[in-house]
Structures are given as C-alpha cells and as structure tokens.
Amino acid sequence: MFHINHNLLPNMLIKEIATIKPLTPEKARIKALQTQKDNANKALKAERDRQRIAKAQKSLNTALHTQ
Question: What pLDDT score does 21 carry?
Fold first, then answer.
C-alpha cells in the first residue's frame, strides 16, 4: 500500500476543478486544428534538422576520405 502525504499535495479546491467547462464543438475543432498545425511545424523542423545533419555528416565524411 502507498501512503500519501496530503501536506505535500497542492491546495486545490473542488470548485476549481468543477468549473472547467467543455469546449463547444466549434472551439474544439479550432483547438484540434491548432494542435495539428503545431505538430506539423514540429515535424517539419525535425525533418529539416535531420536533413541538415545528414548533409553535414556526408560533407565531413567526404572531406575526411579525400585527404
């Protein structure tokens, strides 16, 4: 069994949790599209970084083998 030290938990009131309302379908769609856009931007940056690193490694490899 686990013992929870309630003194270490943040003091959050039940009403603070209960007042969060669900998003309207329109706002949920906007939020989902925004999340997709952010994920696509992250994937694009990661792919550009990957290609940049691959190009630099190839260039370094070529330079080392031509000496």
Answer: 84
The C-alpha angle 9, 13, 15, rounded to 5 degrees, equals 150
Q: Are 23 and 31 in contact (CB under 8 A)?
A: yes
Task: Measure CA of the first residue to CA of the last residue in the chain; give whole Å.
Answer: 65
Could you give the CA distance from residue 36 to residue 11 in angstroms, rounded to a whole number? 34
pLDDT in tens, 7-43: 655 665 566 566 778 999 999 999 999 999 999 999 9
Contacts 24+ apart (CB under 8 A), 41-45: none
Give the integer Cα–Cα distance in Å for 9 and 3. Answer: 12
Q: Where are the domains of the chain?
A: 23-65
In three-state secondary structure terms, 13 is: coil
Q: Tokens 């989902």: give the residue.
A: 32
